[in-house]
Amino acid sequence: MEFLEASETASPEEHRAHQESRLRELIRHAYGTVPYYRDVMDERGLKPTDIGSIEDLSKLPVLTKDDVRRAGDRLVSHSFNPKELRTAWTSATSESPLPVRWDRSVALMNHASYMRMRRWAGVPFGRPYATMQGTPVVPISQSKPPFWRHNPLWNQVLFSAISLSDESLPHYVRKIRECKAEMLETYPSCAYVMARFLEAKGEYLPLTCVITTGEPLFPNERAVMEERFQAPVFDAYGQAERVIFSSECEKHDGHHIFPEYGITEFLDGDGNDVPAGEFGLMIGTSLHNLAMPFIRYACGDIASRSDKICSCGRTLPMLGGLTRRAGDILVTPDGRMVPPIMVTWIVKFLEGVTNWQVVQESPEELLVLVVRDEPVRESELEGIRGYVSRRLGPEVRVRVELVPEIPRVGRGKSRHVLSRVPLVWGVPNRSSEPARLGGAP
After folding, report:
1. Which own/partner pairs from 360-365 qualify as long-range (CB within 8 Å, at least 24 positions apart)?
2. Whose CB among 117, 186, 253, 284 lies 3.0–4.6 Å from 190's, allowing a Cys bridge?
3. Whether residue 146 has a cis bond before it, omega within 30° of 0
4. What does the mean pLDDT of the chain come to?
5. Rounded CA gap, 140 and 37, in Å?
6. Complete domains list, the chain, with CATH
7. pLDDT in tens, 13-59
8. SS3 233
9. Among the listed residues 410, 114, 188, 437, the one whose alpha carbon sits nearest the alpha carbon of residue 303
């Protein structure tokens, strides 16, 4: 945290020197302990000393999600004890989810980066705050409070997005007031649902700030949140792969890229760098995850870099724009409103899927459309049903259908979660258009 605070006003040359120092260490480690990278570099006649600068990264191929699937454990360093690593899954907003292994170093940098963002938002470490996350905090069958747990070391109260409902929301709001939380950190869809609940009740929940991450933030959502929470919204961007991290500062004039976290490239369809102001595929290299290095990883999102210097005075580089796509909020039979990210892991139970979509026509049923050559096995169905039961409730039925193709939208991207069920209080679901920052196309 001290390092990140001091680094905020470092010169571009100092940022670059730090990145390249860590890059050289990463390349040596990957070549020596990660079978996938040794094979890739040997095939190209490369030695670790051949990659010493950011420009030298172009000697390596882009790492795609299909590459990660095919490589499997060959992407994991054999210098770590597997029992000491954490396994996480990507959110699968554009592809089937991928398993990611983390070591302690990347976990520390990720926590410190979040703490930097919270400090920018006016809530430094140690101040009380609330988190609404995507994992269960209390049993899904629990119908009475408490719907939360405390983390006293961080002065944090934890809620689950899975338990969000018309019945639980009054208790959520009451608990946030009681614990004097200064900040709510959650998915945009969850903060939006809570803000619309407050609006319907004619109430406000004053906070110092709201931090949104994990999903696109739509302008209409931000407006409702800022009105009902009487606080600014700070949007952040990151991935389970831990290769790129960015966040708004108090000026809300775009996202700052965290150069200490990773190296970010912007490439066109031919793999060439795009100039500032032009949109390209974001390519990230994690500078901290030695357990499963992601070097030149294509995360699937489109963005542009900006040459402007933020009026906040920090010298961290800026994103010029960022385009992401979201699904819709799901509604369960008991009235809970579940963010779309909760069902994107369904596809991890299916192999060989080339495209997929979860469609909700009613609270009682989900239709999973799958494009693949092989029929769906009963064991796969059982895995999906069990997952949905744990996340949405046992009363939700699941149908899986094989289809030849799934229509695409916008710029050819897949829309993986589609709900046609209105939210409670008659609130319609969100737009299916991409979320945009800084004039993204």
Report:
1. 360/328, 360/330, 360/331, 360/418, 360/419, 360/420, 360/421, 361/420, 361/421, 362/421, 363/331, 363/332, 363/333, 363/396, 363/421, 364/333, 364/395, 364/396, 364/397, 365/396, 365/397, 365/398, 365/399
2. 186
3. yes
4. 86
5. 42
6. 1-127+182-326 (3.40.50.12780), 330-422 (3.30.300.30)
7. 999 999 999 999 999 999 999 999 999 999 999 999 999 999 999 99
8. strand
9. 437
